[in-house]
Automatic annotation (TrEMBL):
Bilayer topology term: Multi-pass membrane protein
One BP annotation, GO: sporulation resulting in formation of a cellular spore
Organism classification: Bacteria, Bacillati, Bacillota, Bacilli, Bacillales
GO CC list: plasma membrane
Keywords linked to the UniProt accession: Cell membrane, Membrane, Sporulation, Transmembrane, Transmembrane helix
Summary of the function given for this chain in its UniProt record: Required for complete septum migration and engulfment of the forespore compartment during sporulation. Required for stabilizing and recruiting of SpoIIP to the septal membrane.
Transmembrane segment boundaries: 20-44, 83-106, 113-134, 140-160, 181-205
Subunit-level organization: Component of the MPD complex composed of SpoIIM, SpoIIP and SpoIID.
Protein's UniProt name: Stage II sporulation protein M
Main location: membrane
Highest taxon, organism lineage: Bacteria
């Protein structure tokens, strides 16, 4: 019964905010495309310099000289939690709305640039590397960031309507409570993503790098 109630509440939420979700998904995808395009605008020297550092890193991965798994876990978790935390703060500040959208676009741009650069420099092998190094944790992180951005935008818009348009809607405290719970759940998912990035991705990367170098 409770499960059905939560499913109905989630379905109603997505129906009500479908336009916001569509907008943030499109914005993120635009960031990915823009990041991939930026790769092509780099000069030959810039590409060579970046590829040199990348080769150094792959050499370290192949030799097993990378940060310890627990250290990688902490770095990943704190980095993504700070990002989510910033979105949460921006969502409860009326002026934070455009910054939320900029952050999401930049996240998409970083993903697009990383994948685009690897493919541009290494072809099929670069695609395979991006598949094992970028994709696994981002299968969790990207939906969480998109969800967090949509929730922050939605909450910010409700505050703007209440403050400037004097529209009386739902009481803000229950909304704020649900907003906090949603972000707390998002952080739990980021723990899982950090686990994937720390314990699974390096193993996959090492096997791919070794197969490329052999």
């Amino acid at each position: 019964m409770k499960k059905k109630m939560y499913q109905n509440a989630a379905a109603a939420h997505f129906r009500e905010h479908s336009s916001i979700y569509l907008f943030v998904v499109v914005l993120f995808l635009m960031g990915v495309i823009f990041g991939a395009i930026v790769v092509n605008s780099l000069s030959f020297t810039q590409k060579e310099d970046l590829f040199y550092y990348l080769s150094q890193f792959f050499g370290q991965v192949s030799d097993g000289h990378v940060a310890a798994a627990d250290e990688l876990f902490k770095q990943s978790f704190f980095h993504n939690t700070k990002f989510i935390g910033l979105m949460w703060i921006l969502g409860i500040s009326i002026i934070g709305l455009p910054v939320i959208l900029i952050l999401l676009f930049m996240k998409g741009m970083v993903v697009g640039f990383t994948v685009g650069f690897l493919v541009n420099q290494m072809g099929w092998e670069g695609f395979l590397l991006s598949f094992v190094s970028v994709l696994p944790q981002n299968l969790i992180i990207i939906p969480i960031f998109i969800l967090a951005a949509a929730l922050a935008v939605s909450f910010s818009l409700k505050m703007i309507r209440r403050q400037f348009m004097k529209k009386v809607g739902q009481p803000m405290m229950p909304l704020f409570g649900r907003y906090m719970v949603a972000f707390a759940v998002a952080i739990l998912f980021l723990i899982a993503a950090a686990g994937v990035e720390a314990f699974i991705s390096p193993v996959l990367m090492k096997s791919v790098v070794n197969s490329i170098q052999s």
